[in-house]
Amino acid sequence: MLGVAVAACNFQLPFGGGVDASTGDTAADMPADSSDAADAPPGAFCAPDAQLVLCLSFDQAPLPAVLANEGNAAVSAKLTNVQQIASPDGNAALVDATSTIALPASADVTGVLSSEVWFRIDTDAANGARSGIYDSNISSQNISMFYNRSDPTHQLTCGLGNQATSFTVTVAIGAFSYAACTCAGTTVSLYLDGTLVAEATGDCATGGAFLGDGLTIGSNNTGVGQPVNDNLIGAIDGVRLWSRVLSASEIAARHLRAAR
Hints:
Elements: E1 5-6, E2 52-56, E3 66-68, E4 76-80, E5 83-87, E6 90-95, E7 100-103, E8 114-121, E9 130-135, E10 142-150, E11 153-161, E12 164-169, E13 176-184, E14 187-192, E15 195-201, E16 215-217, E17 234-242, H1 248-256
């Protein structure tokens, strides 16, 4: 994965425990360029939207070995050694050092400008190490997020386009968190539990894509056909990738909604 440019900000987040995930968007929450989501059923995590490139809810029961994308791109995820567990908001994928969630390269996944993920860290990484939340392994149009430990702080690395920037955060071990990363022109923004952590300048205007190495979830993508590493020990409770920049008000509203 890419080298990391650090744009840190001291940020202490009050934590309330379980996940607050999103339902579908309403007209009041959506910017003027939004499409179908305003008309979608309010309970749908993967509500129809022309700009929703990828959506994995992990709510299907039982969880299949090949999980179809609930967004618009023609791509599916292959799950290996992944268990399904109940989460505060439906179901989640429980992952460990033996787990793989992998999506292949796809020409349908391009121009990703926003990413969202609900995740839980059950075992902290060793000092100086990291846990992969998702990773495409491509430096010029990457899509990635890593949880990094560098005592006495922790960081979330937000990768979109030709940049990956680390932001200092406080994440509660054993509790679900909601992280969102956006790229508007050359401005990279990271949000945690609905609140803006910080912004930085980065080369991200082209957005992210699933190029030669596809995408892995819950690990670091080391390349097509290669074993993953830096596995997350915990759970993933939903991933969404968008071809538009989510607004701060949308992100705050998604965190506040308790039911999908």
